[in-house]
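Record format v2
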Amino acid sequence: MIYVSRKEHFNAAHKLYNPQWSKEKNVEVFGPCANENWHGHNFELITTVAGMPDPDTGFVVDLKKLSILIRAEVIDKLDHKNLNLDVDFMKDKMASTEILAIEIWKILEPKISRISKFGKLYSIKLYETPRNFVEYFGEASNP
Amino acid sequence: MIYVSRKEHFNAAHKLYNPQWSKEKNVEVFGPCANENWHGHNFELITTVAGMPDPDTGFVVDLKKLSILIRAEVIDKLDHKNLNLDVDFMKDKMASTEILAIEIWKILEPKISRISKFGKLYSIKLYETPRNFVEYFGEASNP
Amino acid sequence: MIYVSRKEHFNAAHKLYNPQWSKEKNVEVFGPCANENWHGHNFELITTVAGMPDPDTGFVVDLKKLSILIRAEVIDKLDHKNLNLDVDFMKDKMASTEILAIEIWKILEPKISRISKFGKLYSIKLYETPRNFVEYFGEASNP
Amino acid sequence: MIYVSRKEHFNAAHKLYNPQWSKEKNVEVFGPCANENWHGHNFELITTVAGMPDPDTGFVVDLKKLSILIRAEVIDKLDHKNLNLDVDFMKDKMASTEILAIEIWKILEPKISRISKFGKLYSIKLYETPRNFVEYFGEASNP
Amino acid sequence: MIYVSRKEHFNAAHKLYNPQWSKEKNVEVFGPCANENWHGHNFELITTVAGMPDPDTGFVVDLKKLSILIRAEVIDKLDHKNLNLDVDFMKDKMASTEILAIEIWKILEPKISRISKFGKLYSIKLYETPRNFVEYFGEASNP
Amino acid sequence: MIYVSRKEHFNAAHKLYNPQWSKEKNVEVFGPCANENWHGHNFELITTVAGMPDPDTGFVVDLKKLSILIRAEVIDKLDHKNLNLDVDFMKDKMASTEILAIEIWKILEPKISRISKFGKLYSIKLYETPRNFVEYFGEASNP
C-alpha cells in the first residue's frame, strides 16, 4: 500500500451559527466567527488515496484525473461561494471545518473507483487557515 | 536606512461589486468574485517601516509596538469581518486588494511616528491568496 | 472520529548536553548543538485532538479555547526562554526535541477534557526547524 | 515510541513512459508527463524513523547522522540526475513518485540500524511538487 | 502607483551547457548542472504589474486575465518541457534562470496593455528552487 | 541588470540587552527578548547580487560559489552560536536583526567581486522569524 495525495484550494465565506440558539448565545459560543455579515478563508484541501501502484503506470491513481474529479465534485461547488447559503450538501449543517471535511469525504469516497482500479479514499485533510486544520479518515477507519 | 517588516493576518469576507452597474455586468466583469452571497480569504499583511536604527536599542521600530499598532488600527477592524459591509474606511469603495492596501497605508502612515523616532512607513504588502498580492509605497514614492 | 489541529509557535534557546559526560564527549556526540553558550530555534508546535464533533457546534474542540490552553500551559513557559535553565518541566532532562514533545504531551493530555466533551489528545508534533521535527502519540498508542 | 523526521531535497529530470506501449499510448495515458525530452521537479524527501529515545542523548536517532546517511545513499544518486537514465535502482522501473518512494524505502530501511540502536524506518514521504506527494510505510505496515 | 502580482508555476527540465566549450570545461564550470541527461525544477514565476487602479473595478489589472495571459504566452510553452530543446524563445541561449527571466519579460511586456489600461509590466521574479531565484525589471528600469 | 538571490539559514541564540542600562530598564524596553538566559531563532538569510549576466554562462554570479562564500564568511560564524557572546563582528553591538543585517552586508559586500565579474551586492534580507524581518541595501543606496 502506498498513500498518494493531491492538494487543491478554494476561497469561501461562512459563519458559525446555530439557528436553534439566540444571537447572543451564538456570539457567546462562536465569538467573531458568528459575525452575521460573514467572514472567509483560503481553504486548502488535501485528498489522500491509498492502494497498490498499477504495474503499467506506476500510479495508484492518476493525479491529473484525481484533480479533475475533486474540482468537478467539490471545488466547483465551494470556490467563491458562501458555505452556509450556496452549498447544497452543507444545507442545515454547521459550517465548521470538521463537518465540511466529513461531507467532502462522503462525496469523494464512492467516486474514487471511477478513476482508480487499485486505490481507495484514505483521508480528507482540510486547512481553514495555516494554523487551524482537520483530518478525517471515514467512519470505519482510523489513521 | 534599513527596512523592517512585520507580518500579520486576518480573515474576511468580501465581494467585488460596482453598485453603478447591473448585476449582469458585475458578473461579466468580476466573474465568481461578484457572488452576491460573498466569498472570503485569509489575508496576510506585511507592513514595512524604513529608517535608521536607534543606537540605544538597535531598532528602527520595536516590532512588538508595531504589531500592537497594526492590530489596534487595522486588524481589529478587518478580522472576521465583511469588507463591504462592516468596515467604515471601506464604505463606498471597491473591496479590491489594491484599494484595501491603499486605505491601510492611509491609516498607518501618520501613526508610525507615535512608536518610532527614526522610522517612516515604507510599504504595505497585502496577500489575498498566496498567488495574488499587491504592494503600495504611498502616493509620492516608488520602491 | 475526526482529528483537529492547532499550530502555535515559540522561540527558545537550548543546548544538547549530558552533564554525566565530559565536555569533550558532549562535543563529540552533539557537535555544534553542544555549544556551551547555547543556540536557538523558532519552534512550531502542532497539537491534534481527536473526537466526534459536538452536534450543537460542529466542533470536536473550540480551537480558540485550545489555543488559549496551549498558550497558558505550554507556550508561556517556553517562549523566549532557555529550555535547559528556565523551564521547570525540562529540569534534569535532555533538551532534545523528542523529550520536549513528550513533556508537552504530559502537560496537555489531562487538560483537554476541560475544554472538550468529545475530544482526546491524539498527537504532539514539534518542529525544531522546517527540516527537523518529531511527533508523539502517547505511551499507549500509535498513529 | 516517538517519530522523528528529516527533510532533504533533490532536483531531477524524468518522464513517465511505459516502453511496452506505443508513443501515442504513452501520450494518451501520461499526457505532458510523457514529453520525450523530459521535464523535472524539485523533490522534497521526508524520512521518518520511529523508536524510543536513547536515555543518554534524548535522541531516537541523531538527525545529523540520518541526514548524512540519506545524502550518501539516496540524494547523491538522485540530485541533478535523470531518474530514467542515470539511477541504477530505477532501471527498468516506471519513474513515478510512487515507485521512487518504494525504492528509497528499500535502500534506507536496512541501514537505519547502523545509526540508531532504538529506531526503525517508519515512512518515506516524497513531494514531487507542493501539490502532488506520496507516502510509503513499508510492505508489512500501515500508518 | 500600486504593484499587483500573480504567482504561477511550471515544471521543466534543463541543463547548463555552453556548446562552444568542451564537455570537460562545462562540467568544470557548471558541475552537476551540466549533467548531459538533464535535471529539472518546479519553477515559480511571479509577474508584477504596476499602475493606478481603474476607478470602476478597483483593479490595476484583472488577475484572472493576467493569469490567462501568462499561461497562454509563457506557461504553456515551458510546463513539462525541456528548456534547452523544446522552447523556441530559448533556442541558442544559455538555459539559466537569469536568461529565462529576461526572455519571459520580453514576451509579456508588450502584451500587458491588451489586458490593462493603466498597468505596465514592472518585474519578473523566477524561483528555480525555494533557495535560488532571480528578479528582472526590464532594460531601462531599476526596482 | 538582473537581481540574483540565494537563501541560507542558521540557528542562533541571542538576547536584546543594552549594558549601559539597568536590568529593569532592559526588561521594560525589550520585554521577554531581554531574558538573561537567552532565547533563539532559526534565521533565514537572503543575499541578493545585481549585475549583467556573463554571456558565457548566463550567470550574474554562480549561486554555488555564492553559497560557499556566504557559508564560509557568515553562516559558519553564526550557526549554532550565541550572537552576543560567540561572534567577533557583533562584539559590543546590539544583537538586533537590523544590526546583524548591516554587519553581514559589511562582510559580504567587498567579497562579491572575488566570485563575480559582473555583480555587486544589492541587498541583505534577514528573517528572525517568518513574521519579523529586515532588509538592508547598503549606506549609499535605496531599493
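The two ends of chain C are 14 Å apart (CA to CA).
Chain C has a mean pLDDT of 96.
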